Automatic annotation (TrEMBL):
Protein name: Ribonuclease VapC
Entry keywords, A to Z: Hydrolase, Magnesium, Metal-binding, Nuclease, Toxin, Toxin-antitoxin system
Top-level taxon of the source organism: Bacteria
Keyword Magnesium annotated: yes
Record: residues binding Mg(2+): 5, 105
Family annotation (SUPFAM superfamilies): PIN domain-like
Span of domain PIN: 3-125
An MF annotation (GO) of this entry: toxin activity
Length: 144
């Protein structure tokens, strides 16, 4: 089972769908095995707010509508950053202190660890020092 990082779920965004056909097909097929983190939800929301702030209202509207549908589809599979994840994040933060990881990556790695998931991300170099099991689905689609 897999935890989808924001940079992977973003491949489903309206402006990017055509570029990632095989990944989108795989995500559809793998849907029962996929989870999202509330941290990724915050990262996507930040991108929507940025588009609004910069005056890209059409893009912001399209992204907001798309994200609302993603949240609806994953409503039961949107994992919280709870106390167990916080404890795991504290350990990961100390273990990876030399790499100065961002909190979002630590939180996603901790969530994946607590739930026994593999992180799907383009940013392998961000997650490997955190001890997370990671795969880049843009390079090779995982076997189901």
């Amino acid at each position: 089972m897999f935890l989808i990082d924001a940079n992977v779920i973003s491949a489903l965004a309206p402006s990017k769908r055509q570029r990632h056909g095989s990944l989108i097909e795989w995500l559809d097929e793998a849907s029962p095995q996929l989870f999202l983190s509330v941290i990724s939800a915050a990262e996507v929301k930040s991108g929507i707010v940025k588009a609004e702030r910069e005056g890209a209202t059409t893009k912001a509207r399209q992204l907001r509508e798309w994200w609302e549908s993603v949240e609806h589809l994953y409503a039961q599979k949107l994992l919280p950053f709870d106390l167990r994840c916080a404890h795991a994040a504290g350990q990961i933060l100390d273990d990876a202190r030399a790499h100065q990881p961002g909190f979002g990556d630590i939180a996603i790695a901790a969530t994946a660890q607590v739930h026994g998931l593999i992180v799907l991300t383009r940013n392998l170099r961000h997650f490997e020092p955190l001890g997370a099991r990671v795969l880049d689905p843009f390079k090779a689609l995982p076997k189901l």
